[in-house]
Amino acid sequence: MHKRRWLVGFLLLLLVAGIGLIAWQPLHEVNKGRRATTEGKQLIKALKKGQPVEGKTTPQITRIQADTALSIPSVGIDLAVYKTTAGLAYGAYAELSGVKANTAPGDNNYVLAGHSSYLHGVLFANLFQLTTSRGYERRTGTAYRPSDYQGGQGTGGLIKVYTKLGTFTYQADVAYTVNGNDTSILSDPKSGETKQIHLFTCPRTGYKHPPFRYVVQGHLIKVKPTQLGFQKHLDTSLTVTNPTAYSVGTLTSE
Q1: pLDDT tens-place string over residues 51-74
Q2: What are phi and psi of 135, to 5 degrees?
Q3: CA atoms of 204 and 117, how far apart (whole Å)
Q4: 203, 213 Cβ separation under 8 angstroms
Q5: Which among 96, 87, 136 has a CA at the least distance from the CA of 114?
Q6: Number of helices (H), then strands (E), in the chain
């Protein structure tokens, strides 16, 4: 009888531990998403008010600095933007920073990477819900996954990027998928065309490192300088000059 009770207790303990492990991962994801969104909103608020953001970091977790923030109001994305891949755990990553240290919104092509999640509201997970003007398009030679896209076709959602110099507003044009080694989204549009933004993440999939990336492409429609931006003569032009083609290997994010 004593052995039977001990065995039942042990099995119950294993059951509770198993349930705890199963529940821990989604709880961890939710907490990660809330933390990143809170930090993003705080940074956006500071930038809007023109408050100093030098040295602003993610609290207690890392010493990574951010002075740029991304906001996509229609799908609830508010994230700090970092210039190191370590920042992917806390927000978005300025993809070209490895070859162009001063990459910033208002460039001919501003490219941001972000981690996705199987849970709503975590980092770039809601990017799949952003409406684009042309919807989801098939691209030759890469996976076609229209089921990933939930945004529909219509008036493209607004994508806002905040800095201490100004607010850059883009409109979402189209969503599509590219192979992970296809760096075409890093290249600038042709001279005279509208400046672009590219946001990308890993599509929803059952394995950890898919060989392709989900992309939302948009174009710059407005630049609103802050007082400091006026003083620094922030470039408010909407069209491309001196286009450049970049090649940096496999696209970041997972």
Answers
A1: 655 544 544 444 567 899 999 999
A2: 75, -150
A3: 8
A4: yes
A5: 87
A6: 2, 8
Concatenate the DSSP letters of all residues of 140-195 into one string: TTS---GGG--S-BSSPPEEEEEESSEEEEEEEEEEEEEETT-GGGGSPPPTTSBP
pLDDT digits (tens, 9 = 90+) for 196-208: 999 999 886 655 6
Q: How buried is residue 32: exposed, middle or buried, by Cβ count under 10 Å (0-12/13-18/19+)? A: middle
Residue ranges per domain, the chain? 28-231
Select from 130, 113, 115, 111 the least CA-distant residue to 36. 115
pLDDT of 127-176, one tens digit each? 999 999 999 999 988 889 898 899 999 999 999 999 999 999 999 999 99
Whole-angstrom distance, CA of residue 69 vs CA of residue 234: 17
With residues binned 3-state (H G I as helix, E B as strand, rest as coil), the percentages for the chain, rounded to 5, are 30, 25, 45
CA distance 227 to 234: 10
How many other C-beta atoms are found inside a 10 Å radius of the C-beta of residue 17?
10
CATH topology of domain 28-231: Sortase; Chain: A; (2.40.260)
C-beta separation of 214 from 127 below 8 A: yes
